Amino acid sequence: MLFTLFWTFFKIGLFTFGGGYAMIPFIHSYAVEKFKWITDDEFLDIIAIAESTPGPIAINSATYIGYKLKGVKGSAFATLGVVLPSVIVITLISMFFMQFRDNQYVEFAFQGIRIGVAVLVLNAAIRMYKKLEKTPLAYVMMVIALLIILFDVLPVILLIAIGGVVGIVNQLIKLRGEAK
Amino acid sequence: MSIKLLFELFLTFFKIGLFTFGGGYAMIPLMSDEVVSKGWLLSEQLMDFIAISESTPGPFAINMATFVGYNQQGIIGAIMATLGVVLPSFIIILIIAKAFHKFASNKYVVGFLSGVKPVVVGIIFAVALTFLLKSIFNIDIMNILDIEFHWSSLLIFAVVFGMSRIWKKLHPVYIVLVSGIMGLIIYGFIL
Question: Of A49-63, A113-127, B42-56, B79-93, which has the strongest mean pLDDT?
Fold first, then answer.
């Protein structure tokens, strides 16, 4: 069982290019459909939890599913499985590919690729903006965060922590208002 | 091999893992704060590595940790940095799986996330803007008058951005490929 967990998450880690959200359908087809380790409802819960906690969604779901099936040992095996392909592939790339980085033509290609990367990040921002619950407070916080990072005013960690505290205070005020 | 540096790698990526909400790209400014400032990575390398990570298996956070760790301290460094970035998620999820069944609907969690989400979206827009200015106009935001512009960069932007808007489900690896091929042809052979 531990080996099946490890091997399944190893495959999930190996075949999802582009990381994070690309993994969700793979995890669903193995953990829900093929092995019936978790139900559809549990799967949705896991996604909700993974989105509410820090860290990559792949790690979060591997840890959760592993724990449910085989306790702490299960989560260790599942997480190791999902991490290992990245570690192996990136180590190989660091060893070999980086030697080509000084090649003139590779540099030309990367000059173009940096524009592609800017587009990828822009698209991610647009995608997340569409999913955002658009309250006036959310708009204000988004714009302030944008300016703070753009002009490098505060460390990112502090900014995220402040955002969280403002969110909690706002939520408590809202709940108190509803109670009255 | 330096034990001190290994520990620093572990601790730095632990911090990054602990504060990364909202997926890989939200990590980028955190990487700038914690990794570029330490001289472990150049900001161009960070951009190049995003492309490599989108074209290889696995989550960005793991790929980044392995890459930086390997470059600093070889395979042991890669393992320490990866362990660091994974552990916060691992520990937090174990606690939740054990103790909080209603975690995602807890009022503090809901409140915290309602504040963190718009901040993260703002952060990612800022990263996108910084990258666009840098890659198309070669502008540093702190030095905005120093513009160096080529029509060709704008052309590459228009093509790949157009592609990604027309085919919404297009895999990132195609964006990397097309912009790379265009870069090679335009900068290598035309200019």
Answer: B79-93
Same domain assignment for residues B168 and B95:
no
The contacts of residue A177 (CB under 8 Å, 6+ apart) are none
What region, left, alpha or beta, does residue A145 occupy, with left being phi > 0 and alpha being psi -120 to 50 degrees? alpha
Which tens digit of pLDDT belongs to each residue from A135-161?
999 999 999 999 998 888 888 889 999
- SS3 label, residue A36: coil
Considering only the beta carbons, identify the residue of A18, A128, A146 that sits closest to B173: A18
ipTM for the whole complex? 0.86
In whole numbers, what is the pLDDT of chain A averaged over residues? 88
User: Which of A112, A128, A146 comes nearest B183 by C-beta?
Assistant: A112
Report the domain count for chain B: 2
Residue A118, min C-alpha distance to chain B (Å) = 5
| Residues B182, B166: Cα–Cα separation, whole Å | 19
Tell whether B98 and B18 lie within a shared domain: yes
**By percentage, how much of chain B surpasses pLDDT 90?**
40
Question: Residues 47-76, chain B: which have Cβ within 8 Å of A?
Answer: 47-48, 50-63, 66-67, 70-71, 75
List strand residue ranges (DSSP E) for B142-181, in order: none
Instruction: Report yes or no on B137 lying in a domain.
Output: no
Q: With 80 as the cut, is the pLDDT of residue B18 above it? A: yes
Whether B174 and B96 share a structural domain? no
Q: Is residue B22 part of a domain?
A: yes
Q: B184: domain range?
A: 150-191
